[in-house]
Amino acid sequence: MHDFPTRPVLAALALCFTLTSGTADAVVSGDALASALGQALTSEQQAQREYQAVLTRHGESAPFGHILTAERRHEAELRLLFDAHRLPVPPRTGSQPALAPETLTGACNEAVSAELEGIATYGRLLNTDLPADVRATFTRLRAASEERHLPAFRRCATLPTPRVSRPAPEEPSEPGNYGRYWSHGQRGHGLGWGTRCRQRARGWTN
User: Fold this and answer.
1) Beta bridge partners of 205
2) Which of 115, 150, 167, 200 gives a 20 to 30 Å CA spacing to 184?
3) Which residues, at least 6 apart from 148, have a Cβ–Cβ distance to it below 8 Å?
4) DSSP sequence for the chain
5) Cα gap 185→84, rounded to integer Å
């Protein structure tokens, strides 16, 4: 029997495996990887614009504030991947602010659609060749949308629209305008203008 040089053979196989892996990574790390990361980044930034528009119009409203913070973390993770693979980060697209729906219920329904689009984007990207770190990040971000963000917005969409109180009328600058805030036949009956307005303001709700 011949004694085969075991160690040199194993070393050659290891080198071959390393070179093969390096070649595959180099292919993925080109335009295809830049495109995949760019699509993921655009999806996260679009969600941020939509959720920020809701907060700007409706004030601090659950769950938009918490999820907006999460989307910003997701963007930061994607930017780290650009750096790790020595790829330039594309400029932010869609600088125009998004328009928020008139009601929170409508905003939640639109957010459900946005999360579904984001989940579909990550699902499509995960069906392509990706480096291990990119695949792990995409899988984690898709799970965050699917398991946390989407259920939260679906619950929000089923809540009744909150009642909004109308503000009381402003105090007139001239004493002669007091009478228009009083009920017919109640002038001079001992109740001042401020009392009359407070009584009426209590009932001004939708």
Assistant:
1) 165
2) 167
3) 70
4) -----HHHHHHHHHHHHHHHHHHHHHHHTTHHHHHHHHHHHHHHHHHHHHHHHHHHHH-S-TTHHHHHHHHHHHHHHHHHHHHHTT-PPPPPP--SPPPPPSSHHHHHHHHHHHHHHHHHHHHHHHTS---HHHHHHHHHHHHHIIIIIHHHHHHHHTSPPPP-BPPPPPPPSSGGGGGGGSPTT-TTSS--HHHHHHHHHTT-B-
5) 78
Domain positions in the chain: 25-157, 167-206
Mean pLDDT of the chain: 76
Of 96-100, 122-126, 186-190, give the range with the top mean pLDDT.
122-126
pTM: 0.64
CATH topology of domain 25-157: Ferritin (1.20.1260)
- For 152-166, the pLDDT digits (tens) are 999 999 977 554 434
Each residue's pLDDT tens digit, 5-49: 444 444 444 434 333 444 344 456 589 999 999 999 999 999 999
